[in-house]
Amino acid sequence: MRLRLILLAILVASFIAPLVPAGPAGDVRGADSGACRAYIRNVDVSSYNTPDHAFPVDYLETVTVRVVSPLPFISHKVDMAFMDLFSWTVSEETDTGTETSYETPVDVADYADYGIGLYKVTARGVLQDGRTCSAVVFIVVGGTTPVSTVAGIVALVLAVGGALGLLILLILIFMGILGSSSLVGCLGVLPFAALLIPLAMVTGGGQSSGSGQTTGSGGAPQAPAGSPDASGGGVKFRLKISLLAIGCALLSTIGFVVLFQQMGSVYPTITVVVLSLVLGLVAGILLPTLAATFARRRK
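-> structure tokens emitted (299 positions)
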């Protein structure tokens, strides 16, 4: 059990550590930074600065992002973000220092190959006096379906595959076929489930040993039917740590987050990602524990 808890702690740390936002990088934002305005298709998009109010574009469209400032730019950079953890540079140039605006064409199809849905566009510029000016715009890329893109297909496989793997694990645990965590992956359970589940339904799940004891979910001898632990009222609630179930739950959670992003419903901020992973972690621990508890109660 101690080894499982250590492995669980390492797993949690590996998921949570990259999600902790870094501290300020020392950028100095001037008082005029709020005066910058961004335009897409010559439309002022300053009000499209939240995920629930995103500017619609087509995935085959080439849009022009224009940023205007009260002072001339000496350089500018435009980034797109799939989520707060992943972003890339669309354009980065050095300006003449005489123009108070700049334009950058964005070929949406270059990014629709990997996915559609909600994106965050951040335009930053260094002004003539050394201060920075920035504008943030959320866009929703449409014109096709999520399952027609690479990100959408991968997200669907993770969401459905992880959920299905977790469901099969719960059934196997409840029937007493699989009592402890295994080293095989989530999908590695699927071929065996097609044979084991029908067999368990015919044989009744757990088997009786010659000494009158039954083997429980972990393979350890359980009390006879007449003892308190064999009845529903005397079964104790014991926490069950299954790394396999946790892995399936986390994969499914990540898949659903990306799938909702592709559908334009959710933009995966750091808060959304962290809360989703925490819920996945709780489900990966709580559901196998309940399945094992109910499996003991029914014997």
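Residues 270-297 form the longest helix (28 residues).
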